[in-house]
């Protein structure tokens, strides 16, 4: 037996106010079940991942009125969680521990009248301890940590801001074709270069959006999925990579990510190589994250992510359609559920104007922490081994 | 001129660092059992798991690993806070510190640096790195 994704539920995404993360999570699960043609009572498993804006935990089962579950837990590897949840749900289905598992992420960090950056930034007048000193001196946001990583890649391999900009521009071209995307106005490389610095070498247009909302998927056996409402999205492979880069001499921080491990594991399980991948949905909290992930998966050699991105391969019409929904840079920021949801849409052929020309093998990545955690899924509209 | 960073207080977990900073000495974690130097805010020694490894005085010498100039968000009145040149510095003893640079015009990988301490009127002294 193999496992498949049978349902996808997405709430309104973006500046969605007035609904708690728990309510949003519940709504997404209901939508996913309905999408699959299932009743909530058909679910016997629930896996929950929360973001920053308040936690839906396992009490979500009570919110949904779910009873007699065989599987109920939270999972957390930050942006890698979506892939980890789906693989855990798939293994539960394959082992017989559960038959029909909902995996959900919800977050609502945005407040009305507040900037996106403020949702992820710390400000204070007094600071405490060594860590407080670092924050006091200016290291207060995730942006700065990723900027340090990107700068190290640039210094080592000659990667340029214009190459990162090519990712931002191409991703926006995809977003323009996606009615679900928050940012759909075309941008040029000049716009990217002129956008304000956030943390050099990252411009504003190198950084993802912040969104409120929730997304859920339903994982079940492939045979069962085939009898449900929507075409199954088959799970061919999965993997994780947690490099454990230490803050000391010899660290690969900024140069390599967990994708170097999770990619080969997932592709081996799926029986594919990078040459077989038709579409990539890569975790793009920053343009740089896409670039370094492409290298670590082996779509290009280490250090050549910049020229590869600048070649136009990732944009509409390119050889490796990537982040076809606009990703997190231009689409919506639902952590690992952003790439996963677009992968499901592409596998079903529901991409409309943005449907990739081939969708037989789709690679989905998740990235969590400061490049600390990585997950990979290989999805396909075709049954595994068929 | 001191930076406008707010007031820095101790947290009871990294006090030996601030004792050293008050005397212009760089004091970091060091696990004697593993002969391993660690950052002052290391949660534990990755060699043996000791959650309270000891402290020792480092040389203050280091090299630049990577850097970023962070630009604050423009305020409602359009004013922009001054940018900060932040960095990861590798101490000669091995550990990396997140820190801020002063007097560095042309950052590059491997740039030799040395620790310096600022002593504001209120609150604890703080650590910066300048070219060696």
UniProtKB/TrEMBL annotation, chain B:
Domain spans labelled ChsH2 C-terminal OB-fold: 55-118
ChsH2 rubredoxin-like zinc ribbon domain boundaries: 18-52
Pfam families reported in the protein's UniProt record: OB_ChsH2_C, zf-ChsH2
InterPro entries: ChsH2_C, ChsH2_Znr, NA-bd_OB-fold, Thioester_dehydratase-like
Protein name: DUF35 domain-containing protein
Lineage, uppermost ranks: Bacteria, Bacillati, Actinomycetota, Actinomycetes, Streptosporangiales
């Amino acid at each position: 037996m193999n496992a498949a994704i049978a349902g996808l539920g997405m709430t309104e995404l973006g500046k969605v106010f007035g609904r708690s993360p728990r309510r949003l999570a519940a709504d997404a699960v209901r939508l996913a079940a309905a999408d699959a043609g299932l009743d909530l009572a058909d679910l016997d498993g629930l896996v929950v991942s929360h973001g920053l804006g308040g936690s839906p935990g396992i009490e979500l089962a009570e919110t949904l009125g779910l009873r007699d579950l065989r599987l109920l837990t939270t999972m957390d590897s930050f942006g890698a969680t979506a892939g980890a949840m789906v693989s855990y749900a798939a293994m539960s289905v394959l082992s017989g521990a559960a038959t029909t598992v909902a995996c959900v992420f919800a977050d609502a960090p945005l407040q009305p009248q507040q900037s996106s950056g403020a949702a992820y930034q710390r400000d204070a007048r007094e600071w405490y301890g060594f860590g407080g000193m670092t924050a006091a001196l200016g290291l207060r946001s995730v942006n700065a940590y990723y900027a340090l990583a990107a700068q190290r890649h640039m210094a080592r391999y000659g990667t340029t801001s214009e190459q990162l900009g090519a990712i931002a521009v191409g991703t926006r071209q995809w977003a323009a074709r996606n009615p679900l995307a928050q940012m759909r106005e075309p941008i040029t490389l000049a716009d990217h270069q002129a956008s304000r610095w956030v943390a050099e070498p990252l411009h504003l247009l190198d950084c993802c959006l912040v969104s409120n909302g929730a997304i859920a998927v339903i994982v079940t056996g492939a045979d069962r999925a085939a009898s449900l409402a929507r075409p199954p999205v088959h799970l061919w492979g999965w993997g994780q990579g947690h490099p454990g880069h230490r803050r000391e001499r010899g660290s690969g921080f900024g140069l390599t990510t967990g994708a170097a491990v999770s990619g080969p594991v997932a592709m081996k399980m799926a029986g594919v190589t990078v040459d077989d991948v038709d579409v990539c949905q890569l975790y793009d909290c920053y343009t740089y994250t896409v670039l370094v992930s492409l290298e670590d998966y082996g779509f290009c050699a280490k250090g050549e992510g910049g020229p590869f991105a600048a070649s136009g391969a990732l944009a509409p019409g390119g050889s490796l359609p990537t982040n076809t929904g606009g990703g997190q840079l231009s689409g919506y920021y639902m952590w690992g559920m952003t790439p996963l949801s677009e992968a499901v849409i592409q596998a079903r052929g529901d991409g409309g104007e943005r449907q990739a020309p081939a969708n037989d093998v789709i690679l989905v990545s998740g990235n969590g922490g400061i490049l600390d955690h990585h997950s990979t899924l290989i999805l396909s509209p075709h049954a595994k081994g068929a | 001129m001191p930076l406008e960073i707010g007031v820095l207080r101790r947290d009871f977990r990294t006090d030996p660092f601030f004792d050293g900073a008050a005397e212009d000495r760089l004091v970091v974690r060091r696990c004697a059992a593993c002969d391993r130097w660690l950052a002052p805010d290391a949660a534990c020694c990755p060699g043996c798991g000791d959650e309270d490894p000891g402290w020792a005085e480092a040389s203050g010498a280091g090299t630049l690993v990577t850097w970023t100039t962070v630009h604050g968000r423009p305020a409602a009145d359009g004013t922009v806070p001054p940018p900060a040149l932040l960095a990861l510095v590798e101490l000669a003893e091995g550990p990396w510190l997140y820190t801020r640079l002063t007097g560095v015009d042309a950052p590059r990988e491997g740039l030799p640096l040395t620790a310096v301490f600022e002593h504001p009127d209120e609150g604890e002294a703080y650590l910066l790195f300048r070219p060696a």
